Amino acid sequence: MTIQLYGFWRSNAAFRVKVALALKKLPFEEIEVDILAGRQFDTDYAHVNAERVVPTLVHDGHRVFQSMAIMEYLDEVYPEPRLMPEAARERAYVRAVAQVHVADSHPFVVPRVRKHLAQTYGVGTDAIEAWCAHWGREGLATYERMLMTRPAAPFVIGATPTLADICIAGQKIIADLYQVDMDEFPRVAELTQRCFEMPEFAEAHPFRQPGYRAVEI
């Protein structure tokens, strides 16, 4: 078995996949694609990932992209420990929780959106950071309401983390990057604290990656 992951320290999507790999104790080789420098648009990488985004997982020569697809693929190929519940209703709930981050919040703060705001509309750095913080808070607020309705015990679905917890942790990373005050979101803060107390989450955090640059927002 060989696993390669095209990723980058700053990539929230790569973070999600790294946590999934760590929870399943699957070793991998990371290949850096500097998305801040635009290396995802290099011709060589376009042959790896037609969408020109990270991450891309290569498993025994087979390529998978999009973080949710990668994590579900890993769960099917290496089913223990499970990242998706067995019951259909619970699986649907986990996917819904995950999509709040993956589909409704994180896409608004990725490099290509920030670049488009700056180049097309002349939006300055401070306004872009405020934009990103806004979408960070929006996702956190949704998760806070969800956890109020269905409290974590101790994770979103039971005793162990699932894709839902990984994605909520990803939303917390947006808060970390853009200095969002977590006082408004105590349930999210409590859940993500439990997540990041686990080495699988903590060691995948962008701030813990070798390429992390504190000045880079």
TrEMBL record:
One Gene Ontology term, aspect cellular component: cytoplasm
GO molecular function, one term: maleylacetoacetate isomerase activity
InterPro entries, per database record: Glutathione-S-Trfase_C-like (IPR010987), Glutathione-S-Trfase_C_sf (IPR036282), Glutathione_S-Trfase (IPR040079), Glutathione_S-Trfase_N (IPR004045), GST_Zeta (IPR005955), Thioredoxin-like_sf (IPR036249)
Domain GST C-terminal: 87-214
PROSITE patterns: GST_CTER, GST_NTER
EC number: 5.2.1.2
Gene3D superfamilies: 1.20.1050.10, Glutaredoxin
Boundaries of every GST N-terminal domain copy: 1-82
Biological process (GO), any one: glutathione metabolic process
Top-tier EC class: isomerase
PANTHER family, alphabetized: GLUTATHIONE S-TRANSFERASE YFCF, MALEYLACETOACETATE ISOMERASE
Name this protein carries in UniProt: Maleylacetoacetate isomerase
Taxonomic lineage: Bacteria, Pseudomonadati, Pseudomonadota, Betaproteobacteria, Burkholderiales
Pfam families xref list: GST_N
Entries under NCBIfam families matching the protein: maiA
Keyword Membrane: no
Keyword annotations from UniProtKB, A to Z: Isomerase
